[in-house]
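Notes from the 1:1 (GR / supervisor)

We went over the backlog. Supervisor wanted to see one worked example end to end before approving the batch request, so GR pasted a single chain during the call. The sequence is below; no edits were made to it. Supervisor asked that the structure be written out right there so they could see what the output format looks like.
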Amino acid sequence: MTTTPATASGTRSKTRLANETWEATMLAHAVLMRRFSEQDVWAGLSMREYDVLYTLAKADAPLRLRDLGEGVLLSQPALSRLVDRLVQRGLVFRCANPDDARAHQLSLTEEGVALQRQVGRAHGAAVAEAVTATLTEDEMRLLESLSLKLAGKEQS
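Structure output shown during the call:
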C-alpha cells in the first residue's frame, strides 16, 4: 500500500479514504492469515476445513449447507466438496432435515468436536498473541465494533 498525497484541502476524498481503508483491512487480513497458516497448530486440517468445524461448533443447532456457507468464505460447490471430505473423515455428520426432505443438516461428530477444540485452543492462543502484541484493549474493542458494523451485525 502506498502513501496517499493529500488533496488541495489537505484531506483525502471520501472515496479514496474508503478504498484505502479497505486495502488496509485486506492487507491486515492477508498478513495475519499467512502468519496463522504457517503455524503448526492445524493437526492435519486445512485452514478452510478448520473454518467449517469452527462454524459448526459455534452453531446452536445443526446447519444446512446454505447456512454454513454464510459463515465460510467458499463457493457453494467448493463448500459442498469440503463437507463431503469432512464427512468421509468422520468429523462432520450429515442427516436429513426434518423440515425439508430435499436438504441435509450438518453437525460435528464427537471426533469433530474434539479436533475443533484441540485446534481451536492453539489457534485462539496464536490469534490472541498476534492481536494483543499490536493493539490495545480499546483498539481491539473499536476494531471489533467497526468490523461488525461493516458486516451489518452491530452489537447492541
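Supervisor's comment: The first strand starts at residue 63 and ends at 64.
Batch request approved.
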